């Protein structure tokens, strides 16, 4: 039975002027992810990615304005088929986000090699609570993919990962006391 009131999936198709292997690395290497993840006004300040089936990922997006808003997001990798398919769950941990904690969506990224040497990315996200949320995510992901396009053109080659000190998280607590807790991103 199909839920006719369920928000439609978010579907974005983007062509990148970069080989598929490079786009794949941008999606799967934490030192690359931190350099493009998040839209312009909420870039990633911290990223952790254990890119294997069942592995966890977590990112902190931080506004650069006076309010200094911090948004945590996380999930688990479900499917990893290099260099063509990546599936993972996506959830906001931050209570001030409209979806709030506990709402898990499903993201699929499929990379298609183009005859001109570029890559077509087919992105979909499903499981939203509302159409408003899907529209909000569309704006966020499109802004993020603008940054990914720029990163693929000039960032992947010109900025060594060592210049990004925020790629590691500070752990507070341990698995023995209920699991890891993470410090507020800097």
Structure description:
With 186 residues, this protein is of the alpha+beta class. It has a single domain (10-182), classed as Alpha-D-Glucose-1,6-Bisphosphate, Chain A, domain 4. It is built from three helices and nine strands; from the N terminus they run E-H-H-E-E-E-E-E-E-H-E-E. It has helices at 20-28, 30-33, 131-158, and strands spanning 10-16, 44-49, 56-62, 70-81, 85-92, 104-113, 119-126, 171-172, 181-182. Strands 1-7-6-5-4-3-2 form a seven-stranded antiparallel beta sheet. Strands 8-9 form a two-stranded antiparallel ribbon. The chain is globular, with a radius of gyration of 16 Å. Residues 17-152 form the Activator of Hsp90 ATPase homologue 1/2-like C-terminal domain. This is SRPBCC domain-containing protein. InterPro entries: ASHA1/2-like_C, START-like_dom_sf. Belongs to the AHA1 family.
SSE arrangement:
Elements: E1 10-16, H1 20-28, H2 30-33, E2 44-49, E3 56-62, E4 70-81, E5 85-92, E6 104-113, E7 119-126, H3 131-158, E8 171-172, E9 181-182
Antiparallel strand pairs: 1-7, 2-3, 3-4, 4-5, 5-6, 6-7, 8-9
- Main β-sheet: number of strands, strand sense, barrel status? 7 strands, antiparallel
CATH class membership: Alpha Beta
**What Rg do the Cα atoms give?**
16 Å
Largest sheet strand order: 1-7-6-5-4-3-2
Helix content: 10-25%
Mean of the pLDDT scores? 83
Order of helices and strands: EHHEEEEEEHEE
Spans of at least 5 consecutive residues whose pLDDT stays below 50 are 159-183
Please report which band the strand proportion falls in: under 5%, 5-15%, 15-25%, 25-35%, 35-45% or over 45%.
25-35%
Could you tell me the CATH topology label: Alpha-D-Glucose-1,6-Bisphosphate, Chain A, domain 4
The name of the CATH architecture is 2-Layer Sandwich
Structural class: alpha+beta
Q: How many strands in all?
A: 9
**What is the straight-line distance between the termini?**
46 Å
Looking at CATH, the homologous superfamily is START domain
- Supply the number of structural domains: 1
Quick one: overall form?
globular
Continuous helix count: 3
């Amino acid at each position: 039975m199909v839920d006719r009131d369920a928000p439609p999936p978010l579907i974005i198709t983007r062509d990148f002027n970069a080989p598929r292997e490079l786009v794949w690395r941008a999606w799967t290497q934490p030192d690359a992810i931190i350099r493009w993840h998040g839209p312009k006004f909420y870039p990633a300040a911290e990223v952790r990615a254990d890119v294997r089936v069942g592995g966890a990922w977590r990112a902190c997006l931080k506004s650069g304005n006076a309010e200094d808003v911090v948004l945590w997001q996380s999930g688990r990798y479900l499917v990893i088929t290099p260099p063509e398919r990546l599936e993972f769950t996506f959830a906001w941990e931050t209570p001030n986000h409209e979806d709030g904690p506990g709402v898990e969506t499903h993201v699929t990224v499929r990379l298609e090699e183009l005859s001109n040497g570029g890559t077509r990315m087919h992105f979909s996200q499903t499981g939203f609570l509302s159409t408003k949320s899907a529209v909000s995510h569309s704006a966020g992901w499109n802004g993020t993919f603008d940054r990914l396009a720029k990163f693929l053109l000039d960032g992947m080659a010109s900025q060594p990962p060592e210049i990004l000190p925020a790629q590691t998280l500070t752990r507070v607590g341990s698995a023995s006391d209920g699991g890891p807790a993470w410090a507020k991103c800097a």
